[in-house]
Amino acid sequence: MRGLKKGGKGKRGSVTGTLPVGFRPSNTLIFQNNSYDTGASGDGRLDINTNGDVVFKSGTNKWYGFDGVQFVASDAGYVWNTLTPLNTWTQYGSPYSDVKATKDNTGRVHVQGLAREGTVTNGTDIANLPASYYPTYTMHFPTASSVLPNASDVNTTGAIESRGTAGTWRSLQFMYYPSSFSGWTNLTLQNSWVDYNTATYGPAQY
Asked: Are the beta carbons of 29 and 112 closer than 8 angstroms?
């Protein structure tokens, strides 16, 4: 999805729009998004239900972003691998998607699902991905949770790791290219920006 909206009712649970058949998830999904809040950009939450409803859950109606909301539609036909939660993390359960992963027809990895939080110490493994899903470098993703904002990592041995602040649940919605992809070009950084830690997170590339 993409786009920036404003001016709706701004009431928790209100429907901002409905996706057509063929663009709907198989279970309710939760996303962290950007939303205007008290004079500066901040964090919001939107849910997408199985009937296609895109639901306002938190943020403000001054502006509300859809950019970066991505998922695999229910009728895409891909085979999903349900992941086993670790370290007292558990699957959240219906109506939300279990934490699972698949590859699309271009080879990109998609992870989606909702987990109840267990041990949240930074670096604690939440679940492990199959070997062919490992990234070249550790990937750092913004993550919707009961405490916004939050984050999770996917490291080079396929572990989805806890980062950020303790809460009660965490929505794991990622898309990335695995290590089998090549041909990346380093981005030329400007205005005193430098790569953070290329040994772990890798350089900025496209």
From this structure: yes
Q: Which positions ≥6 away from 201 have C-beta within 8 Å?
A: 137, 138, 139, 140, 195
Report how many helices (DSSP H) and strands (DSSP E) the chain contains, helices first.
0, 18
Tell me: the pLDDT tens digits for 62-101?
888 899 899 999 999 999 999 999 999 999 999 999 999 9
Question: Do the beta carbons of residue 25 and residue 69 sit within 8 Å?
Answer: no
Listed in sequence order, the residues at least 6 apart from 2 whose beta carbon sits closer than 8 Å to its beta carbon are: 66, 67
Q: Assign 40 a pLDDT band (cuts: 50, 70, 90).
A: low
75 phi and psi, to 5 degrees?
A: -100, 20
**3 in helix, strand or coil?**
coil
Report residue 198 as tokens. 């290329």
100, two tokens: 């699972």
Quote the Cα angle for 203-2-156, to 5°: 30
Higher pLDDT, residue 52 or 7: 52
